[in-house]
Write a structure and sequence with these properties.
Strand order of the largest sheet: 1-2-3-5-4
Number of helices: 8
Family: Belongs to the protein kinase superfamily.
Shape: globular
Organism: Selaginella moellendorffii (Spikemoss)
Structural class: alpha+beta
Order of helices and strands: HEEEHEEHHEEEEEEHEEHHH
Protein name: Protein kinase domain-containing protein
Number of strands: 13
Number of domains: 2
CATH architecture of the largest domain: Orthogonal Bundle
Oligomer: single chain
CATH topology of the largest domain: Transferase(Phosphotransferase), domain 1
Distance between the termini: 40 Å
Keywords: ATP-binding, Cell membrane, Glycoprotein, Kinase, Membrane, Nucleotide-binding, Receptor, Serine/threonine-protein kinase, Signal, Transferase, Transmembrane, Transmembrane helix
Subcellular location: Cell membrane
Length: 291
């Protein structure tokens, strides 16, 4: 796509859908009325395209990776624009925006447990696909969180935002020279600059998402008694040890639709994902099988 064309279909980037780690996302409407999501990447790229520069190599590598991904639980890349200094990615548009929006905004709560389970399983399958991509190469997402789980009109989950994703060989790791991910969802090993980043970092982040989906609470919340700030997944691990799983459940969920066995299963899977030692965490294909 040309920059002028994307500027036109987004009405001069008027309708902001969200803000990601790499840039803002805008709603666009093509001439055939197809809606698209246009990500305008943050400034900082060279004024002229240079195929040898690290920035443009990174951009083209991301596009090449996305172009090869075809999975029902992954947001599809439709095209791109590379007209210096503008770098844009064009994705399919999903009607229900993100899990973050429907889970935490009081006007649009997800009150059906079955729908929440459907979303968790879909997101897990999308991440599993990243981790097994092309057999001898893996994609580490590095920023799994509810804002990066997008939803169709019928709440089919698709994992989005490859802004921090890197291709890695199965036998090698990504070295972390910049702090990846989002605070709270970031695995312990990701907090040390220079440490290796593996797919197990995504597994940890998914564990946090599981607890948020069960509880309907953000990572850090304030308890009613004492107004104490509580780190959600620590509280979840405490309740898991006490086998008090139902105390985590979101009060907004319809009582007749809650499956206690499934709640127990999800919390246990989350606890496994949240192991401090990456080697003790499950693979995402194991997570999918368990869910």
């Amino acid at each position: 796509f040309s920059y002028d064309y994307l500027k036109c279909v987004t009405k001069d980037f008027a309708n902001v859908l969200g803000q990601g780690g790499y840039g803002a996302v805008y709603l666009g409407v093509l001439p055939d009325d197809t809606r698209v999501a246009v990500k305008l990447l943050n400034e900082g790229f060279p004024q002229e395209f240079d195929s040898g520069s690290n920035e443009d190599k990174s951009f083209l590598a991301e596009v090449a990776t996305l172009a090869n991904i075809r999975h029902s639980n992954v947001v599809h890349l439709l095209g791109f624009c590379l007209e210096a200094p503008k770098h844009l990615l064009v994705y399919e548009y999903l009607e229900n925006k993100s899990l973050d929006k429907v889970l935490f905004e009081p006007t649009t709560p997800l009150t059906k447990w079955k729908t929440r389970m459907q979303i968790l399983i879909g997101a897990a399958r999308g991440i599993e696909y990243f981790h097994s991509y092309s057999g001898d190469r893996r994609v580490v997402h590095r920023d799994i969180k509810p804002a990066n789980v997008l939803l169709t009109a019928d709440f089919h989950a698709k994992v989005a935002d490859f802004g921090l994703a890197k291709i890695m060989d199965t036998a090698t790791h990504i070295t972390n020279f910049t702090m990846p991910g989002t605070v709270g969802y970031r695995a312990p090993e990701c907090t040390i600059i220079g440490d290796a980043i593996t797919v197990q970092a995504d597994v940890f982040s998914f564990g946090v998402v599981c607890i948020e989906v069960v509880s309907g609470r953000r990572l850090v919340y304030v308890e009613q008694q004492g107004r104490t700030r509580v780190l959600l997944f620590r509280r979840a691990l405490e309740l898991m040890l006490q086998e008090e799983y139902m105390k985590l459940v979101d009060e907004r969920l319809a009582e007749d639709g809650i499956d206690e066995d499934e709640v127990r299963k999800v919390v246990r899977v989350a606890g496994w994902c949240l192991q401090e030692d990456p080697k003790q965490r499950p693979t995402m294909d194991a997570v999918v099988a368990l869910l």
